[in-house]
Amino acid sequence: MFKKIFLGIITLMVITVITSAALMAEEKIIKIDGSSTVYPITEAVAEEFQKAKKDVKVTVGISGTGGGFKKFCRGETDISDASRPILKKEMDLCKENGIEYIELPVAYDGLAVMVNPKNTWVKSMTVAELKKIWEPDAQGKITKWNQIRSEWPDAPLKLFGAGADSGTFDYFTEAIVEKAKSSRGDFTASEDDNVLVQGIAGDKNALGFFGYAYYAENPDKLKLVAIDGGNGPVLPSEKTVMDGTYQPLSRPIFIYVNKKSISKSEIKEFVGFYLKNAPKLVKEVKYVPLPDRAYKLAQERFAKMKTGTMFGGKAEVGVKIEDLLKREEAKK
Prior knowledge:
Layout: H1 2-26, E1 28-34, H2 39-52, E2 56-60, H3 64-73, E3 79-82, H4 88-96, E4 101-115, E5 124-126, H5 127-134, E6 158-162, H6 167-176, E7 188-190, H7 193-201, E8 206-211, H8 212-216, E9 223-224, E10 226-228, E11 233-234, H9 238-242, E12 250-258, H10 265-284, H11 292-304, H12 321-330
Parallel strand pairs: 1-2, 1-3, 5-10, 6-7, 6-8
Antiparallel strand pairs: 3-12, 4-8, 4-9, 4-12, 10-11
Helix pairs in contact: 2-10, 3-4, 10-11, 11-12
């Protein structure tokens, strides 16, 4: 009797193990990592995709554009979210590891400069003033608001910004300091934009920068600063980002797809779903959709599996939507 019960238990355990192994074998996983700026878009796409495809699991990390490319170029992820184009050193790493990639623009974004809502003195700033604050020589020297403009208060300047692995950090420093990654180091840095939102929201003397979409999700906690790029102060908005008047802090954002990963049907299907649904989902998460023509061109490139980048491995500032379209069409 006991022998039969024991054998029954063993049989049940074996069946359970075999069933679990079969289920694990059937589970399809799409691995994505990279930019915290692009994250809300990719996460929205992943959620919608998984509703239709219950057997597919999409994981989306936020290690920053640079951190994401490190993983991607080592072959650890299928897709990399990027808030700037791939850089030469990342291109070299991908080549070294035999990783070919397809570069796909998915939206347009503006970098917002923000202060605390209790800040009553700042309405606009020039690019030169931002450079004075953020350049490496400012470290330990520019520490009060009245050092930027004499009429501003003699109060501490508390700075918040994207971390060094963030494409937002690369773009901001290139646009403002005129050299990517060239920045003072004495500020609160994070690759997670939500950390920056909370930091600025909690300090009357705070100033920081990150993607406009994170402001749009928290307008009661933050106050936008208009930026004067040489033609008068302009606030970031869907309109000013789209028409190119918000400069130099507007930029295209991307996903990069490992060509080898496309051999998996679920990844090919996911990217197709991403490009088809991007216009709607991009707008839902407060980013600026590209023109329909840009998405069509991206779909064509993906269908033809055209690898490489439209950029030269260097950070570029002031790329407008029409410039992006011209590059897309040149790649046809």
